[in-house]
Amino acid sequence: MTIFEGYGLRVATEHIGGREAQLTRAADHDLVYLQFCGRSTIESESGVVEVDPGEIVLVPAAISHRSTGTDQCLRVRVATQEFVTEGVDPEKPTMQRQFAVRPSEPIGITNGGNTDGDGQAPVLEHISFWDPQSDLWVERDVAALVGCKREGGRVVRKLSAFNYFTGMTGKGGARAPILYNGKEFRVDVYNLEEEQNGFHRGCDEDEIWFQFRGHSLNHTEWGALELDPGQMSYIPRGVAHRITGSPGFLRMVLYSRKLVHPKAFNNVSERETRFDVQ
């Protein structure tokens, strides 16, 4: 489900149940997956990566991959037309956090196939482009493809998104860790508790918020907004805001210098799932 869309950024949520029936190769844009609930296994030309709640994975452009989701696998999927680089060293976290996320009700509808067999039979690969009218389909030998990348270029690698803090962000003077960075787009994380130092506004970029853990009260020039785990919102450029976080507050923020627009609204939602994040 697409949640936000802009000129160089697309943000969606997805529920992966079992093994995806096809491979995906985003030819001209990067993909970033934040694991929120459950677990996923990402098979790619770079090898196999196991992803738990609170971990985030960059799949660089032109890397073929597919996922297998288990335990109510829910992810935030970010497509960015700009290629990005890691802003932290995956090998040098400042803390070791692990998370357990439980939904208030089963998610139900799934995207994916089943896990029968070894998954090595030939499958279709979807070669996608930013312009969706350019898509291609080819048949691949999965056994020969997974792990075939040997050296050079960017690789599929995960980060523990919330394990790089050096202090409290937004109040204690510590800077928010930048997980991925580009000229037009970046991903930060915050651990603010209590009231932020003051109102502020981004004058040249839109912000998209994903509340991972804890509760937040968000005062803006448009009024007050509360967010709980698994909920998202955004602040357009130029709108002043101030955050008050509960104990355990953790948030991922996407920044885009190009305009983004909401594509999904609560008044058309079929459920109101809540999440307990420990």
Give short descriptive properties of this protein.
single chain; 278 residues; mainly beta; Jelly Rolls; 2 domains; eight-stranded antiparallel beta sheet; six-stranded antiparallel beta sheet; 1 helix; 23 strands; 1% helix; 48% strand
Q: What is the fold's blueprint, element by element?
A:
Layout: E1 2-6, E2 9-19, E3 23-26, E4 30-44, E5 47-51, E6 55-59, E7 65-80, E8 85-86, E9 101-103, E10 123-128, E11 136-140, H1 142-145, E12 157-160, E13 178-181, E14 185-190, E15 194-195, E16 206-213, E17 216-220, E18 223-227, E19 232-235, E20 241-245, E21 250-256, E22 260-262, E23 275-277
Parallel strand pairs: 3-10
Antiparallel strand pairs: 1-2, 1-22, 2-7, 4-5, 4-6, 4-7, 6-12, 8-13, 9-23, 10-11, 13-14, 14-21, 15-20, 16-19, 16-21, 17-18, 17-20
Q: What does this entry show, briefly?
A:
This protein is mainly beta. The chain has one helix at about 140-145; strands at about 1-5, 10-20, 25, 30-45, 45-50, 55-60, 65-80, 85, 100-105, 125-130, 135-140, 155-160, 180, 185-190, 195, 205-215, 215-220, 225, 230-235, 240-245, 250-255, 260, 275. The model has no long low-confidence stretch (mean pLDDT about 90).
Written account of the structure:
The chain has one helix at residues 142-145; strands at 2-6, 9-19, 23-26, 30-44, 47-51, 55-59, 65-80, 85-86, 101-103, 123-128, 136-140, 157-160, 178-181, 185-190, 194-195, 206-213, 216-220, 223-227, 232-235, 241-245, 250-256, 260-262, 275-277. The chain is mostly beta strands and 278 residues long. The chain folds into 2 domains: 2-160, Sandwich (Jelly Rolls), CATH 2.60.120.10; 178-277, Sandwich (Jelly Rolls), CATH 2.60.120.10. Strands 1, 2, 4, 5, 6, 7, 12 and 22 form an 8-stranded antiparallel beta sheet that branches. A 6-stranded antiparallel beta sheet has the order 8-13-14-21-16-19, with no helix packed on it.
